[in-house]
Design brief:
This protein is 6% helix and 45% strand. It is mainly beta and 358 residues long. The chain folds into three domains: 9-39, no CATH class; 63-209, Jelly Rolls (Sandwich), CATH 2.60.120; 215-356, Sandwich (Jelly Rolls), CATH 2.60.120. Strands 13, 15, 16, 18, 19, 20 and 22 form a seven-stranded antiparallel β-sheet that branches. The relative contact order is 0.13.
């Protein structure tokens, strides 16, 4: 780092002109200012370079192999470190590795206290993946009062089985009435949660004012046929979360859990043969049908595969569990719920994209 040279009054007297010493001092101080701006040493938090744009989180992508702007805590037997082998956004990610399930891996908390108000919404999202199934993870907001005393935590994302494929997570939330500051906390390997140890990768963390089109995309993925259809109603398989940015939404045992709100849905499911068929969006909690899919007739003597579609908007007055059922007139063995494409890639059968509109 270039040293700063204080002003030398004698070099600035009228009539002396530009001397070699004066020009050297000007060069050194210009270089010093440039270095200070580039390193952004300006706040006592050891902050990283300020990203251009609306992201309030400094160094949310952990670039330049740096954890500047974050305080790392390694749990007993765990590690938290920059990783260049599994970047999810840019060329580095932050890896949390656990070796003892009861202890977990570790956490990272953003250093800066971001000013907030309780009359605006805030969006926090990230990219995540796990090295193996059944490893836990969590992303939270820590709320503080005007004196920066902690009030509470809000969980934006929590999973005991973090996806092993790159997945977008996040949510939009409002601060408690007395909150005036916030910080972000991410945890990989939550102590005594999940059933496996391994590594959680976080990257691309983004915090801003305002809501966004939060969505949940789930579907059935398999390498085989969709399975045998039966006469009447059957629950369609939903086994994969493609992305989830709806706060407190989740998928478990073919059921989608959604909090109170208004949503749009785009869903489909195929049927081979079946004579006639249609899918339905069902409120499992209240045993009611929320929406009906299109009526389809693929035939049976020379069966073809057709899909029934659901498009529309629905409102939930409270948190509910939902699923997609499929009414089929005639059974078809092995592939009645979808035919294996056999192209060496994963088959996708039932698919459901839900977007929170208010």
């Amino acid at each position: 780092m270039t040293a700063f040279t204080a002003k030398v009054t004698s070099l600035l007297n009228a009539g002396k002109g530009f001397t070699t010493t004066l020009l050297n001092n000007l060069w050194d101080n210009t270089t010093y200012a440039k270095e200070q701006i580039e390193s952004h040493v300006h706040d006592g938090n050891g902050s990283a370079k300020i990203p251009i744009g609306p992201n309030y989180l400094r160094n949310g992508s952990f670039e330049d192999s740096s954890t500047a702007g974050w305080t790392l805590t390694q749990y007993t037997g765990g590690t938290v470190a920059i990783n260049t082998s599994n970047p999810l956004d840019g060329n580095t990610s932050l890896a949390f590795t656990s070796t003892v399930l009861a202890n977990g891996g570790g956490d990272a908390v953003s250093n800066e206290y971001i000013p907030v108000t309780d009359v605006m919404a805030y969006l926090l999202k990230a990219i995540i993946k796990a090295s193996a199934a059944n490893i836990s993870s969590k992303m939270e907001i820590i709320w503080y009062d005007s004196g920066k005393a902690q009030i509470s935590l809000s969980t934006v994302y929590s999973s005991s089985n973090t996806p092993t494929a790159l997945t977008a997570i996040g949510g939009s939330l409002t601060a408690p009435s007395t909150a005036r500051f916030m910080r972000t906390k991410i945890t990989g390997g939550v102590p005594a949660t999940g059933t496996s140890t391994g590594t959680i990768y976080f990257d691309g963390l983004f915090l801003s004012v305002g809501g966004f089109d939060a969505s949940l995309h789930v579907r059935e993925e398999t390498t085989s046929n969709g399975g045998t259809s039966v006469v009447g109603d059957q629950v369609r398989v939903l086994n994969t979360v493609v992305s989830n940015t709806i706060l407190n939404a989740s998928l478990s045992s073919n059921q989608i859990t959604l909090p109170k709100g208004t949503y749009s849905i785009h869903a489909s499911a195929p049927c081979l043969g079946g004579v006639r068929h249609r899918i339905r969006l069902v409120n499992v909690t209240d045993s009611t049908v929320l929406m009906l899919g299109t009526s389809e007739a693929p035939g049976s003597s020379d069966p073809t595969q057709t899909s029934s579609f659901i498009r529309g908007i629905f409102t939930l007055a409270a948190t509910k569990n939902l699923n997609i059922t499929h009414y089929i007139v005639a059974a078809q063995a092995t592939n009645g719920l979808g035919v294996n494409t056999a192209d060496g890639l994963t088959n996708v059968y039932t698919s459901c994209l839900i977007t929170k509109v208010e």
